[in-house]
Amino acid sequence: MDIRSQPLERRVLLLSVVGAAVFAAGAITMGLLARSQFLLFDGLYSLVSVAASAMSLMASRFMAQEDGQRFPFGKLSVEPLVVGVKYVMILVIITASAVSAAISLFTGGRPVALGLAVTYSFVSTAACWAVAVYIRRRDSQSNLLRAEGNQWLMDTWISGAASAAFAGALVLSRIPSGQSLIPYLDPVMVLAGSLYFVRVPLAAIGQALRELLDMAPDAALQTQVQDAVNSIERSYGFRESYVRMSTVSRRLWVEVDFVVQASTKMRTVAEGDQIREELFQKLQSVDLEKWLTVSFTADRKWAQ
Q1: Could you give the count of Cα atoms lying within 13 Å of 137 in the half-sphere of its Cβ?
Q2: Could you read off the pLDDT of 131-182 as tens digits, one per residue?
Q3: What CA dihedral angle connects 257, 262, 268 and 274, to 10 degrees?
Q4: How is the chain split among helix, strand and coil, in percent rounded to 5?
Q5: The domain boundary residue, chosen from 168, 196, 212
Q6: Would 24 disulfide with which of 47, 96, 204, 263, CB 3.0-4.6 Å?
Q7: Which residue range(s) make up the domain with 195?
Q8: CATH number for position 19
Q9: Which residue has the higher pLDDT, 118 or 236?
Q10: Tens of pLDDT along 189-200?
Q11: Contact 143/199 with Cβ under 8 angstroms?
């Protein structure tokens, strides 16, 4: 991430912290007043978001502090660590809410004050969507802001689903045969929301682990880098090459070891630097910050 965007990132994260705190208080209060487990679920999700957003804000400030002695390769690994912890917290809330909803479902359901629940859900949906759009438009290259935007977008869908369900329940409440179903609506909504949204934190945790463990990037990116290296290998007559790569946040790490032979068209350090420049230019279409290391050896054991 460009250092110039860090003050903007911190301002947006601060907005997210304040917004999440307001929505957490509102949803928990309305959940208690309306006796809605779903609104309590929404409030607890927002409460976790307050802690998670505050953690992102602290991480952003930490990463902005230059410390080349202790962190010679930078602090980008902090991003996937924070994102992973954040989504683990969200996953815990989703799991706990689903278990509680299942218990309610099999013990007679839960009556809800529908008028209050519908009003709050509509207001919450609009407000969460506005915050999500604001964050997603600020800086698409920040994993921290991307996680915040996804977090608010999830809350938007949760509130939107609640609005539709509570509105439908209001209609059912005016039909004698439908009134017996209303107590089961709230736990069913929590279960449905939990099952649907659990994939978001699971996917995010998986991606964060891939980055923290320095795993290889997706196949398409690997192919693009390998094709560029193969082109250089053929042009200069190297015997073979070894490529290792990973991505962390917005940085692509690439290490290339070329094995030279008698017919290789490289004789000087200056020509080696020219090869590095050519490879760097071939990778310009990759929309990531590049950390490129290119080595040359006549002995394969130093490259394997």
Answers
A1: 6
A2: 888 887 775 566 667 777 877 887 788 788 778 878 888 887 788 777 777 7
A3: -50
A4: 70, 10, 20
A5: 212
A6: 47
A7: 3-212
A8: 1.20.1510
A9: 236
A10: 778 878 877 888
A11: no
